[in-house]
Amino acid sequence: MRRRRTLQYTFIAHRYLYDHLKILHCDLSISNILLNRKDDGSEPIGLLIDYDFSIHTTSEAVNHRDTAADAADAHAAGDTPIGKRVVAVSDAEVLSDTFEGRVVVGAGRTQRQTPRMVRFSQSLETSPNRDFRAGCTALYGHRGSSWD
Amino acid sequence: MDSESVPLPGRSVPVAQLNDALRKELAGNTLNSHSNLLERLLPRERLPFPVDEDLLRRLSAPIGTHPPIWDELESSFCQPPTDFGEAAVCDWLNNIGTTMGLVLGRQCERLWWSGNCGEPLVGSSVHRKPDVVLLERNYHDQVSQKDLLGPKWAFVKALAVVREWPNAELADSVKSYLTFLCQPHRRFTISLSFIDTETGQLSITVTDRVGQVHINPIDLMQPSIDNGLFLLWILAFLMFGRLEDIGLDPHFEIDLNGQAIAIECENRRFEVLERIHALPSLFGRGTQVWIVTHNGIKYIMKDSWVREDGIHNEIAHLRRMASHEELKGRVPTLICGGDVVINGINDSTNRYRSGSCFHRVHRRIVTSPIGESIISFKSKREFIRAMISIIESKLTNS
């Protein structure tokens, strides 16, 4: 349960970084999401670490050195263009892949999108002001006890 | 970590797997260069003493009972090694160093050792015979007097190999790799290769986090003042120079086992509690992460070699995050750090490599808090609860 919430906090931080600072992490993995436990015994929160590959999207996204080649690969494989996918779907991609137990990827890597991820992507694109929890609701149909 | 990376120390490594991994790492990361790379790597202003024709002149006269080592008339070394075996080359190099010391009135800081040319060194799961290694004088004395079981890879300062073929062999690269694997403060490694040809060639290989550079060989036994000065220049640095000039990071304090016990960052001394991450690959960022403590508070210290042409800067990102209260506890707080500065210069491969390749910058940061892995569980109870939660979620959403 706590790990679920840890992931949730992490995705909120991830989203905040993009929305407010235009920073996209680009290297999300199980190793880069940690538990931040407080000494007071309160509930631990997710700590998102390692920004070596992070980009400032307003100035760097199109110049990301991995993007061009990988976007070409993605195009050849019939995937969504990387730039758009990264901006719109990264949360869903992380979410889905983490729960599916696959390796989580960030910008510059190609991966097949599941129909669920596409739906979430579309929900975010059509409602840009939708917060992340609402996006999760759209994705999973309900908030459910897993998210509280 | 991908499957081609080389395993960490302590794990058993099949030779074929190691060679295969290194071969793949070396492919595309190996260059040939002229000696001007060495002039930048080992610059004149950092020489422990002048190496010039005046030194050659002084080395061409007997020093007490010590015979001269340089023939001024022939412009060549007087006593070349009798053969290009490990022991002969080791004795020859030590003789040159000792003679230079006698002429200049100082003792060698380091000496060459070939006593383990027939058996692997201690301290690595990768078993490799070292040919000839450079050790600190005190350590060398302990090893030669058999006070120690044998030298460890952790204390090898530089390498010398003897071989019959001009082309570098993979086995030579393994030795350089082991210095990186066993030395947390290793920045680059210098390896001398003595090639047993008629003219007795010397080639030098420099290995760093970008790749490997082979300096084109010179004819060591042919008459040439320049070639004589070239060897003396290298030996002056290796046997008398400062450790930071031959590839080590002076901000580290190393214990008798070769482990880092303290690391300095922005003039603050952080004591090492535990190394929690280290990439075992030879080339690349070479990221290492430690839990450190300063004034009783624990921090995370991260040391890595990031690409200079990279547009990403973790420090800049962390500084931008610092003013956002909403991110408190959810992203690391930067305590101190930046580019590592050695001898007043930012530590980068750009200092000595040519502009034809990309470069890596040495960076070290200290952050807080210390997180715990989300895949480690405190108890079976916690693990089972997490599993149940996942199963419930899957059932609900399927």
Explained architecture:
The complex is a heterodimer of chains A (148) and B (398). With 148 residues, chain A is mainly α. In chain A, 50% of the residues lie in helices and 8% in strands. Chain A has 6 helices and 4 strands; from the N terminus they run H-E-E-E-E-H-H-H-H-H. A two-stranded antiparallel sheet of chain A has the order 1-4. In chain A, a hairpin with an 8-residue loop joins strand 2 and strand 3. In chain A, helix 1 packs antiparallel against helix 4 and helix 4 (82-100) packs across helix 5 (115-126). The radius of gyration of chain A is 15 Å and the shape is elongated. The model of chain A is unreliable at 60-117, 127-133 and 135-148 (pLDDT under 50). Chain B has 398 residues and is an alpha+beta fold. Chain B folds into 2 domains: 15-246, no CATH class; 252-368, 2-Layer Sandwich (Phosphorylase Kinase, domain 1), CATH 3.30.200. Helix content of chain B is 27%, strand content 26%. Chain B has 9 helices and 19 strands. In chain B, the strands form 4 sheets. Chain B has a 7-stranded mixed beta sheet, with helices on both faces. A 7-stranded antiparallel beta sheet of chain B has the order 10-11-12-13-14-18-15, with helices on one face. Chain B has a two-stranded antiparallel ribbon with strand order 2-3. In chain B, helix 1 crosses helix 6. Mean pLDDT of chain B is 86; it is low at 1-9. Chain A binds chain B through residues 1-4, 6-7, 9-10, 12-13, 16-17, 20-21, 23, 30-31, 33-38, 44-56, 60, 63-65, 99, 140-142, 144-146, and chain B through 285, 287, 304, 306, 309-312, 314, 317-318, 320-321, 324, 326-327, 329-332, 367, 369, 371-375, 382, 385-386, 389-390, 392-394, 396-397. Strand 2 of chain A pairs antiparallel with strand 19 (372-373) of chain B.
